[in-house]
Amino acid sequence: MKGIGIVSYGSNIPRYRIKAEEIASVWGKDGESISKGLGINEKSVPSVDQDTATISVEAARAALRRCSVDPQEIGAIYVGSESHPYAVKPTGTIVGEAIGATPDLMVADYEFACKAGTAGIQSCTALVKADLVKYGLAIGADTSQAAPGDALEFSASAGGGAFIIGRDNVIATINHTCSFTTDTPDFWRRAERKYPAHGGRFTGAPAYFKHITSCATNIMKMAGTKPEDYDYAIFHQPNGKFPIKVAKMLGFTYDQIKQGLLAPYIGNTYSGATMIGLASVLDVAKPGDRVFLTSYGSGAGSDGFDITVTDKIKDLARENAPTVAQMVEDKEYIDYGTYAKFTDLLYWE
Amino acid sequence: MADGGVARFWREIPQRYNLIGNKCGSCGRVFFPPRESCPYCRRKSIGKMQELKLSGKGEIVTYTIIHAGPENFKKQVPYPIAIIKLEEGPQLTAQIVDCDVDDVKIGMKVESTFRRIQEDGYTGAIYYGYKFKPLK
Amino acid sequence: MRDVAVIGVGLTKFGELWDKSFRQLTAEAGSKAIFDAGIEGKEIDAMYVGSMSSGRFVGQEHVGALVADASGFSHVHIPSTRVEGACASGGLAVREGYLSIASGMNDVVVVGGVEKMNDVSGNAATETLATAADQEWEAFFGATFPALYAMIATKHMHDYGTTKEQLAQVAVKNHANGALNPYAQYQREIKLETVLNATTVAYPLGLFDCSPVTDGAASVVLCAADKAKEYTDKAVKIIASGQASDTLSLHGRRDICTLDSTVYAAKMAYKQANLTPKDIDLAEVHDCFTIAEICAIEDLGFVEKGQGGKAVENKITTLDGSLPVNTSGGLKAKGHPVGATGVAQIVEIALQLRGDAEKRQVNDARIGLAHNVGGSGATCTVHIMEAV
Known about the structure:
heterotrimer, A: alpha/beta, 14 strands, 33% helix, 24% strand, globular, C: alpha/beta, 18% strand
């Protein structure tokens, strides 16, 4: 795609953290070995007054503070999440109002487990390419919940990223994008249920690894590239280990994925994961850097992107919003009791 | 039908989400929430009130730490509530977040942030709006 | 404008009155006042009732009519009006009654104030009290009613060096007075340490800095002064009535530590009576929270702005001080059945000026002042009374 791509970006990570060891001690497990096994030390926890809508709004506002896009020129907003505050009433309408983009605006909410945000980037890219909108805003954000005592409790966390897509003042062109999708029941949540269920080890080879490697291979075929052509690679990160393994399988190095790997510090932010990973890369990227991204959403599918950073990134006022690294470091630890209170684990009449 | 009523809260979204106030076209005073006319200029201000989006930056004038909170805020107790003077002039009342209660001081510089304020029970509408955090 | 006198007073005990309903409370206070006034009932031209939130506390509006009915005046079709100004509802009812006589429209009027707060849960009562604040711009964002006065206290401490001990001394003093008042909700003295160590409600205010939830009713019979002798020789005169308003929200005020509504209502009253603060012998002020009494004695002009804390510390306002404040025990110890408070203040001043205040009697009490506030200071009434 000539000249279409990311115009600005922003992200938001709630400040509270709970350590894997703290969770493990409540359930009588060995915190240190769980931490090591998952590659996650601690995860982000939303406060009672934070949810997918507030995280989306803060990420979108950060993106707008960095550029000079007039919110009224944003023609579409897609918010992807598995924890939208309403099952019916799109988070995108709240974001639209909160950034001043209403009322001439296309909005719909997306769901595709952890890849709903990147799906939004694809839709915005297509709308811009078709000249149906001047700018599109794609957001991936979650305040994912895990059942108490379940393995997912160590990783399910909160955060989000927002990307403004357009043709003008593009800081990173989206050269190619494609997806790989099948009906694979590795992880799901039934409607009306509070917590997800999963297929245990089935979530590995036939799910995460198959879709990411297939999609990644297709993207590199489309782009005519090899792993060594890239300066950065971002993979979905349900824990700190899978992305390292899939990178190796594809021929990427740890150095390439390091900048975009946040799971060890904030856990798995689900729809926010690759979005925050990409934001982290853009925080440090230089003109000419080539970025590879493959997200993964259970159910299952992967979205792949081949991106090149342009000269215009120097004009972006990145300092007008906190970097991912700054937000990762801006933290306050809580104990399990407070975590239970915040995430509504305690129920009373 | 949600007993809490929806129109009353919907009507004030521009104020709660975006701090939209207004300014008297005659004397320049800024108001939040917006006023139909300027109390000082009265007739001279009719038809001259101009919508104005406030920056969200301000300073704490006074505060308290609430230990006995209402039902909807029980999970956040103890929490600071402050009167904040915005840089454009008007004052408002809001919760202070993202800092230790002991750090809240008169004169502290703050900026607005978008948060979930309340909800009409488990099935009713969710009301979003402003809270303030320390200006970094 | 004619002069107006108080010819009779009555009130129920204040407290958690499980056996008494809203109607029973009003009937009791009203009949005591009428009996005290030496009138039959047929002399009464109109009724005024102060009640902040009968709707939310007992699910009943239209209480002007209800009180006239419960008092036995419906068959003579007496005009009866309910007046509301949050916690100043009682003071406003007194003023309306006063104006109706001063204007020449009525000769004899009964004014009542009532609140039945314990028929709903503590949470519901707290939420109802918070409707005195700005619902959309204060309460909605998590500010409770105590939080508003707590913010006044924080600023007062910051600007003037007022201390928590000085705030606590207000509570100690008022409980000491309440212990001498058979109608008070709390009739026990308390220690300074108890107040200082109490659970925090909204920093810096603790449980004992806050007035309680109370059931109660109070009533006064007002009469044109030149006709008072027909009924009683215990009349006292209302020589001034002042009223003022201010922004509903605390954040809209000119100065957080000053209740301008008090300043202006007091100015109006002093001017009408041709008096200055120095002329006042005793005062019933609106101590919904300890800090409120400190601001009140400043804003009524008894001491300089910022010196209220010191005045309390120097025991100027105790029962035997140079200016006794809240000899009844105040809202803190006497109790605060919201709508009744403003009327109960008139009752106390009247008793003092008549020499009927028993153990609480202030010597040579000739001129008294009653100060009633609504919300965090959005409404205020000030009445000045003189012994005849």
